[in-house]
Specification:
63% of the residues lie in helices and 5% in strands. The chain is mainly alpha-helical. It has a single domain, classed as Orthogonal Bundle (Arc Repressor Mutant, subunit A), CATH 1.10.10. Helix 1 packs antiparallel against helix 4 and helix 1 crosses helix 5.
């Protein structure tokens, strides 16, 4: 597991900051099904183009999305490597909670057997 130091250049902190906003998480969910333009990303929200663009800039600075050029259209798409960094950081915690739940389940099953 990579350890990051707190600071402006900390990619994991930037990613978690970006993920902390529900609009940005919704944008990422939308991009999970494929690239989209700013106007396509605006559609589900009652937000202005400048507001959506600000959210996209935060996601781009965090490395979670990348922009492209397609004639006049500037589609955005997910950047899987940054999402993998976040998932890698969270994984040990998920495993720990799964182990705890497995132990609880085994304990409850044992208690149920003892009641019979």
């Amino acid at each position: 597991m990579t350890i990051y130091h707190h600071g402006a250049a900390d990619p994991l902190s930037s990613a978690f900051h970006a993920l902390g906003d529900p609009t940005r998480r919704a944008i990422l969910a939308q991009l999970a099904s494929g690239e989209a333009s700013v106007s396509e990303l605006m559609a589900p929200f009652e937000l202005s183009q400048p507001t959506i663009s600000k959210h996209l800039k935060v996601l781009e600075r965090a490395g979670l999305i990348v922009g492209g050029r397609d004639a006049q259209r500037r589609p955005r798409r997910l950047a899987p490597s940054a999402m993998k960094e976040v998932a890698n950081w969270i994984e040990p915690f998920r495993q720990q909670w799964e182990r705890r739940l497995d132990h609880l389940e085994a304990h409850l099953a044992k208690m149920k057997q003892q009641e019979k």
